[in-house]
Description:
The structure holds 2 protein chains of 2 kinds. By secondary structure, chain A is an all-alpha fold. Chain A is built from 16 helices and no strands.
Amino acid sequence: MTTATNIEQAYEAPPRSEVGVLGWLKRNLFGSVIDSVLTIISVSLLVWLVPAFLNWAFTTANWASVTTNKIILMQGPYPQGETWRVFFSAGIVAIMAVISLFVYKTDNKRLRQTMTLVWVASPVVLWYILAGFENSALLPKVDYSRWGGLLLTFVLAIFGIIASFPLGVLLALGRRSDLPIIRWLSTAYIEMVRGVPLITVLFMAQVMLPLVLPADARVPGMFRAMVAMALFSAAYLAENVRGGLQAIPKGQSEAAEAIGLNKFQEMYLIIMPQALRTVIPPLVGQFIGLFKDTSLVAIVGLLDLLGIGKSILSQAGFLQAQKEVYLFIALIYFVFSFAMSSTSIRLEKKLGVGQR
Amino acid sequence: MSNTSTDPSVAQGRFSKENIVAYIIALIAFGLLAYGLVNLNNWRLTSPEQSAEARVARESDLTKAQESNLYERQFSAAEQAKAQYFRTGAIYLILAAIAYFISRRWQAWRKIFSEQMLYAYAFLIPPVGWILYLFAYPTRGDPVRKVIRKNIGIMSLALIAGAVAYYLVFLLQAYVVSPLGNQIAVNALLVGVFNFLLAQQIPQLIGVVVGAYVAFRTRDVRAIAVAAQLVVLAIVFVVFNWLAGNAIIGIESKGLSATDFTFLRLTAGFDISESLLDYDRNSTYGRAFTVGALNTLLVSVVGIFMATILGLVLGIARLSRNWLISTLARSFVEAMRNVPLLVLLFFLYAAVLLQLPRRADTLNMLGGRILLNNRGMAFTWFKATDNFNAWIPFLIIAVIVAGVLWYLRKRTIPTTGRPAFNFFYIVLGFALVAGIGIFITNPLIIQTPYIEGLNYAKNDDDSWVGLIMSPEFAGILLGLVLYTGAYIGEVVRAGIQAVSKGQREAADALGLSQGQSLRLIVLPQALQVIIPPLTNQYLNLAKNSSLAIGIGYPDLFAIATTTFNQSGQSVQVILMIMASYLILSLSISMIMNWINSQVQIKER
Lengths: 356, 604
């Protein structure tokens, strides 16, 4: 004991320049000459830019362009009298999200399965709430050309990921198949879609889809965009899933064969659960990408969040409000994408993906 | 397929001459089989009557023709389909006879034919194929033969049922569905489905399904594999053919063609705001397309170059010990990565570049070397004089000198392990020769931009004084560079972090300086990790340049869209767009793969 105290006493207190605020400053901002110069330059830049921005945001900026159009930004040209349906749907999703926070923490397996089932069924229910029915007093039919704003953005993104999932998994399996024709077809599809920009696929869907279907079939623009997003996304998803499949050691499928599972059981019960688990992070990344990419439908004339923002700028009084409107739209995209990516990082750490 | 190798008779002379010849013949036969398939189904693509009909339709009332066309054609289609059915059947018969002859004659060939071709026949053209199979492969224990003999009754029934179903659908279509037209919403779908079923001839589809059933009943992996592939091929083909058939009807009813590229020689009639080639509204569509392709190439190449620099800076800044620098870099990267590129482009273009001061109040930076206004940006830049061509020989000599020096430098490496002299001397040699050339021939002059009249000044030869960037070009370039730069920054950071800490510590222990450790130890290893994802980012940048259409920069996609709107040539334009981007993507990945192969560790 005594020797220990002696040793402790033998230490001098660290110099004041190395601890506390001063120490932090020295270590993190003025570590070397170059560091100091860079710090000074960036501080002066910040001192110049931040007040200028704040000044603009609180005095000059015409935020009325956003506030008077907030409903339009959320739902586009969706009928004003039916606005409650959009918010009702958003409310349902929010309530479900809050409930799941608790449900997925419980040990009740039955409850958790029910919740998952509710999530799986929810897109269909929400779709009918939003689309409505022919001759219904409560939920009259809303034409698909009137879906817009953030609502359309979400519909496109969610449909895109749901529809591209089975197709992507099939393509991934096809690309790894032993059968040459199936492998060539899948590879050709994946590489061709990945080699061209999304906008060309959207354009093709707008131009070609009405052409390749029988003359009598009328496809609303929203559906055309949905098909394009799903077909495009599937190719990228296939590559992600293929990465996951490659990470599964061969012993797993050999073991599955050894216990007498057939090919389908082997895939469904052994390989896929492990493969999909390892590719959760890239899949979330892809979903964020898809969410951002929905903004491209503004170019082919749909009124998604960005498209509607562009049309606001042609309203009298808001002709010069580009900064305000585009910043607001950017902020909305940022909030959702950032929330998704940070949730995925947390999920990744919690599941310990990558450590296995 | 894994069973094939365990079959001793196949495994034996796998690469013998006979086998190879047999395989080639089998391949040709398969090609003919595919040809037969095409003929079976594409009556819409080839029949001369149909194009004559379309020509008549073009001349008469379009909408009326379109309506009557579809349904009347179903009747003539049924007749044609019958004729083609027999024609294709004859092709199969001949092929199968050859196969039979060969398989009886030579055992080795017979094995291959029995496995590959006859399975295919059996599965695709049931009645003919089955009977031929029974004759051509009379071994007692053959599993396919067994199944066919056992099931021939039920399979024939299925075929008859298919034929009956075909005519039922045909009658329903003609008398029930089509008269209703579009009165019921679901009916549009029904019409589509019925057209599909009729056009693709249900007996054929049922044949494929039954064939697959036969294959699966054999429980023979090889048979199942062949059948599964043929079924997939048939489905893909049938769907594609149906879509193409519809498209061709639609296009021809508008009086256009889907395969005619001669429109590229017509006058475009629209203006293009910026062009690297001589172009005016009297130029052709082909010329316009070339201009667009070059603009895309320009934005991509300059963008890739600048984004790489920005990415390097950001990646290193994110790893900086300086908290402020790394935080700023991280905030920038997060902002870029979580906002769509198109929003960024719209913001940069409409809220920044077009909001710059007007011409009268042009911003003047660095003493007039950079000018900014809402008509664009102007930079002081070089201009080639008339003597430029005289300089080229000097450049060539400079390259040769650099090459010789490179060779001399490398020559000592195999013996001594180190280069003969510093890399710097190569640069010096090049610069010296090129510099003497500049001194003698005076090939370039420096021009400072200024404003003249309504816009920036031009030289006598109609080129800009200095380097002028339109707001559109500046917008797409800046947007692509900032956006991709952020992603490249992450790639660079991950690459540097992937180099294990021990490497750097070992470098320190050896007494290398910080710069040496970065240049000799860390970066070469980081590059191996960086280049594959960097390639992806380059590809993304090239593909994202197509968003230029959003802010009005005339790139490949924008000009192709205008071409489509004016000429109506949808299929050709789309094919050209896709081919161009595929070529661009492939070129980038080829170059990057070559670079990648250079930086990877060479194991001997």
